[in-house]
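Reading a protein record of the kind used here takes only a little practice. These numbers are not coordinates but entries in a learned vocabulary of local backbone shapes. Here is one such record, which you should read through line by line.
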Amino acid sequence: MYYKYEDIHSRPSITPDSDIPENLLHLSHSFGYDSGRRDNLKLLDERTLIFIAGNLLVLLDISTKEQRFLRSCSGGGIGAIAVHPSKEYFAVAEKGNKPSIIVYEYPSLRPYRILRDGTEQKYVSVDFNYDGNLLVSVDSAPEYLLTLWDWRQEEVMQTSKAISKEVYRISFSQYNPELLTTSGSGHIRFWKMTTTFTGLKVQGVSCNFETTLETDIEGYVELPDGKVISGTERGNLLLWDGNTVNVEISRPEEQTCHAGTVQPFALEDGQLRTFGSDGVVRGWDFERINTNTSESRRLEMDPINELVVGHNVCLTSVVRSSLPDSFIWFAQDSNGAIWKLDLSFTNTASDPECLFSFHAGAIQGLDVSKKSHLMATTALDCTVKVFDFLAKRELSSIHFNQGGTTLCWAPSLVNQSGGLLVAGFEDGVVRLIELYNPHSHHVDTGRSPEGDAHLRLKKAFKPHNASVTAVAYERNGEILATGSSDCTVFFFTVGETYMPIGFIHVPGPVQALEWSPHSHTENRLLILCLSGHVVEVQSPDPEAREKPVKSFQLPDLPSRAFRFKSIKSRIKREEEIARREALKEKKRKERENQPEELRLEGGEQEEEEEEKDLPPIFIPDPPSPLCCGFYSQPDQFWLSMGGFDSGFLYHCKFSENQDEDPNQRQDEPFHFLPVSEADDDPICSMTFSSDRQLLLCGMTSGSIRVYPLQPGDHSLTSMQAYWALSVHDNNYGHLRHIRCSHDELFVLTAGDDRNIFSFCLLPPEELQKSLQRKKAKIPSPRVGLDKEVLAVDIVDPAAYSIETAKQKQESDQLRQEIELKILETQKQLAELQKKFKELQSSNQNLPEHVRLKPEELQLDRRFYEQAEKLKSQKGMEVRREMAWEQERCIVALRKLQGWYKDSLESNIITVVAIRSNDKVSTYRLPAATKPQTQVGPQSATRQPDGDKEAELESQKTRAEAAKDIQQTAEEEALRSAVVRPKKIKLGAHQEERLQKVAEKAEKARAKIERRKKEWLQIYAEKPDKDHEDPRDVQAIREARQNIGDVSRVKNLRVNAERKKGELTALEEKVREKQMEMNGRIVALRDSKVQLVSWLVAQTQQLQKVQQRLAAHLHRPPPSLPTMLPEETPEKRQQCSHNTLQRYRILREQRVMNGDKEEQEEAASLLEQLEKETEAEEERGKEEETDGISAVSEKEEEEEEGKAAVEEEAELSELEKELQKEEEIRLLHEQDCLLQQMESSICQFDTALWRLRRQKMCLDCQLKMADLCLVTLSQEILLLKQFEKRERHLEEKLNGCIQEEKNIMTKLEQVNGHLEQKKRDVAKLQERLKALTAAFKASVGENNQFGDFLTRVFKKKIKHVKKKEQTGSDEEKDSDEDSDEDSDWDDDYNSDAEEEGGAFDDSVCPAGCEPELFENTLLLRERRLDLEELLAEEKKSAEALKKESDTLIKKEKVVKNNRQAVEDDLELFNKEKQQKMNELDVVIPLRLHQIEFVVDGSVPSDLSKALVLDKKELQRLQKRIQELEEEKISQKDLTNQTHHQRIRLIQERKDMAVQIQKMELQCNELMMTKFGKLVDLEALQMLSGNRRVEELKMEKLLMETAHAKEIKQWDAKVEEARDALMEVTRRNTEHLHVMTDLFDQKKEVELKLSARQKIMGRQLLQSNRTRLDQEAIQKFQKLVKRQSQHIEAFKIEISLLSHQGGHVLPPSPGRLPPLTRLPTPISDIDVGKQNTSKLSQ
């Protein structure tokens, strides 16, 4: 089943209902290579390479350089590729939204299988297993899933989490199909596939670097014994054994294996081969690495082979040629190249060859010629390249010391030939580069051209101190503007000199420059800054700066500024408002047609929706970056922003108010245009077609968008429909450059993924027709170019820029002036000092009353006051500087308070009973913390597999061996049955007879082969003598493991991690119980709160009832309970407004009193405030009680007054009766209320008492848990002490088990192969005997030619293998015959040769039957084949025997090691268990639980007692009975097996006797019928021979052909003689040229000496001297080379002078051309011309 590629590959995205054709752009060629991508080079066959280029897979033909492309199917890019081992398929793992893995068939390129649902985002690595039936993949963050595929069935077999780090590579082991390896960021991980009853499982083991420094691992190599060698970032190799580093490999004297990252890639011929980022391939002695027994973790060794690919080469991956036994490898160079390497490491090995070279790094600049189909690019790899995108090839490149950052092709107004490039570089240098055709230059100068195009540096100047980001020519071609990331724009006059005009500062790094078009009246420059600023400046006047100035800055240049202000959030807000309004209007119309009830509900929902907040207004900080822009109209421009403001094109214009600071202004666009599906994918670059009807946009996601526009649409109102295609990488292939060719037929794109693509707007067929006679025109060189001196380049990156050099000149001049002023000032000071000293001396000479005092000679006091003032100002500055630190300390204090305050989960709550003193409190619980999962050292315990797997492997091996023998027999049968083509037609009778004999023999042969096949199958299924049932072996192993003290063995396996798990589980259970009890206590507290409020209400109700009763009938209510402070601790933290006011008043009072200690002040204030609050609460309670009593007293007085009034008034009988009834009802109600209150209080107290008892029981349990925690903690501490030793022993045991398993597997395989070889040898000997018997039967007994045919049959001839091609060595004589026939053959041959001498065995003697002679030759050929096979089988058997003996010795050693390690581990476990048994464990017991009784009483010393669970004791007693029953059943089973074995042995003996009888009977029948024992199979397979006459005819034909060939060789000999004469003539010419060169050398030396004398008299610059020295060195080198050529010519002359000497043809290589000196010398030119002629 195949898929259609047209149905699954991604297509362009086109706006619906638009007229844009789907095939708008056609991919033409790819000029780039993403060499920075990991493992991005694969080989399909010997001439086809594949690699990923953005959204494409490129199939590159190495010889023709033709490209074929496959697009990604998801449109999201391609993540990884892998090639099937058979080279018939390759897998493409893609990226995007739920990408797939597509398996293509090669070479048809049809999609064969599609693997889906393997990841969510992208794949990073895929690989086929060695057999090609499985595929494994691993995806990227965050899942990092490892997926195993049955790719032919398109099914996922297993999925597993690879690791939580970035994975670089995954691969299968070529030696063990069950092993996989992954590596990546700081890890390497080994995986094993196992088959269980639930299916295939993949288990991984993380490797531990231990003491080795952790590193990222890019590459590794699996070894046959299961070990792995990996590379590191630091350049050394690591040998992994298990999951640890066994040894680190380096070179002596602490040198690393490679400089930088190293990756091993192959293990061949006993060499481990590695490559590194230093561009070197080395071979290491693997045997020394593998047999290293040193205890040191470091191994130092030197490489045995080394190949330096290049000095600027960084190898990242290699792939081997698909040819068998080839030493050719293809290497990926991350510096942008593909290399062909010969790794044979021989003297005849070819040098590394760079097949393809590309840009290394993101493409920083791209532009196209305005006159031809040429494209120029530059990147940070320090190169500028020129391509012919019509011919799809690179024309020329030039290299500099710094990386290129921008590039522009000069317009025709500047350079009419169209051959001038302007490139900016990262060190701030701008270089003018000329492109010209060297062939035209060759016509003028007579020098030989090199390539179709040449780049030459014309001029270099440095206007900036940072990278140049943009260059642009003014529309008239008179001014060049350059922009840089140092926020400056420099202007130059265009001409031969490019004189600087000046520069301006802009608010941000320059992103792009655009001059106003011719449609604008004024000539202005639009400067786009990355920070969102846009500056427009007037074109400077080139002639305005004629006077010398101190700086090149142009402060008076008119300019306008614009700073973008984000409006995207406002746009979104307005869109949301409009959406809501539309939705509201829609709902209003729907509600008008609904019933009243539904209308009301709809109104409520609408109100709820109106309450939702609108999207906020958001201004990004820092501002969004500016991506690109262009002029629309004068004073107006369009901008494309990135970051938050992406998704729109903003139409902007400059404000009329330009007085504001550009960094402070905020300007909003006056119009915007939404760009669909661009919120996260902004436009990076834009360009228009020449007629402005197409707008081409490069997106951040690497896709191209083409918008058709209406003519003259500057406002872009027609920018609606678009055509989009994903081309570059969707993650990092930002499309920053897009251009149209000069004829609008091509579109060129370049991205950050190092890829360059060319597209054509016409279909390839139409394009070829229209351009079939066109080709790219390369400009001719300028007149006098050959006479110009090479331009001086700026090599030093720290060189001064133009402005810096100007400032340096001005500062030097200013410094000189300052130094002169300082000298003058020093002179003045010296004079003043001299005058002051004279005044002092004259003052001392004056009388004392007139003399001035020393104080009067001091400085004025105001100077000291000024100094004190400055000191106080400095102090204020320090306080302001420390204000932030003060605030930080305050914040830290608050954090500490919050930390310790919130450290508890809840406060302690104490609930108190109402009528008793019982109370219960909650547990004090700390705040819950998240459990920290500690990843302990994982010992990758690999248990040995069962014997079942070994048995299956053994049967598989035997079956494969039988299959090989069967295949060999079939090949032999087919080879013997081959009928040679007929040369002569035989008679009909003979034909019929031969046909019948052949058919009969063929049927017999088929029957015999079928019978052999059946016997081979039976022997393959036959078990070995030492075969054991895997189930029995497994049962014995389990019994041995579980025998003895079960509890002891179980406890021996406990480690610290398990104990930690038990400790954590117990702590969690304790916490759960405490939280449960706290919840019940809090619920009880809440019920008390409700009870108190209910009692207050009941009391009020009781008072109302008692108001209507007489005072003597009142019963006292129960005392009302109150909530104590400890019952509601949370109220302590609740502060009212009055409390805060009181705290403020107290604090102000303290401040007025002058207290300074802040902490003590705060604490005392809180205590005082708490006391006052408690006093107020007590006063409030007293007032409330007084109020209640006052109310009750008042009510009593009122009742007494009423009673007195009633007594005064006489009541009737009815009124008395009613009053009595009312009194009874009120009394009942009073009693009910009091009873309810009493019962509620009692119930609460009872509930509290029960809860208190439950808490006491829980406290006992928790105390037991605490004791258990103490025990567990002690055990953990003890186990940690043994943990390191235990892990070491377990790892050692696992290594021994794994090694023993590997040896056993290998030994079983070797023994199986050895047995098979023995059977093969016996079978070959039988076949050789049968062949000899067949020959004797064919000859007969009384044949007169019997001796001759026997000599022919037994003759030893040189036998050549049929499968080998030319160039193989001659085979040895087939002198190894069978053991029984070899002696007879040798004696017979020697005797016959002595008697008869030499004889011709190729001609049938007269009288002999041709068929018999032909059959003899055929049988001899078969005999030689059998003897050769027999010798090979014996040799293989001897090698297998030696290998088996070696493995047996290794097995014994490993078993001894394993037993020793197991003993050590057993002793260690006993020691660990003994230490654990010594720990004291507290177990509280009751008396009834103690059954340890001595003499009827419990002893005081219970140290000898055993504490055991009762259930465990019962289980052990029951187990005793089970073991007794099992013992009886096993005895019965053993007896039955023994009887069965005796019966089988007897049957076997009977069958052997019967077979012997049948053999005797068969022999008797053969003697009766044939008279001797014969091989029946050989008789059945005999057939006639018809090759005698045919061979005679073949002989004649071959003689004719040989005669023709001899004539051809005679002609070739004559041609060789002519060539020898021509070589002699050329060498004579060389001698004449040598003589001329000697004369020229003398003349040049004389001129040089004369010129040195002349130059010595002049004051030359240092640069001139250096150039002369270089020229002298070059001439010296020339003289050396000429002397070498002279010696070579002398050798050739001497060879030619000897007759019969072997002379090689002249070398086609030419001498290297001389570098041209700065000053042209005619003689030197003549020397160069002669040298070039000589090289030709």
About this structure: The longest strand covers residues 187-196. The chain has a mean pLDDT of 81. The longest helix spans residues 1213-1339.
